[in-house]
Amino acid sequence: MRTRKTLFILPLTLIFPIMAKSQVKIQQTAGRDALGEFAPEFAHLNDDILFGEVWSRNDLLSLRDRSIVTVVSLMSQGLTDSSFKYHLESAKKNGVTRTEMAEILTHAAFYAGWPKAWAAFRMAKEVWDGNAESVAAGSVEAYAQTIFFPVGQPNDAYARYFTGQSYLASIVKDGVPVVNVTFEPGCRNNWHIHHAKKGGGQILLCTAGRGWYQEWGKPAQQLHPGDVVKIPAGVKHWHGAAKDSWFAHLSVEVPGEETSNEWLEPVDDQSYNAL
Question: Which residues, 6 or more positions from 271, have their beta carbon under 8 angstroms from its beta carbon?
Answer without folding.
Answer: none
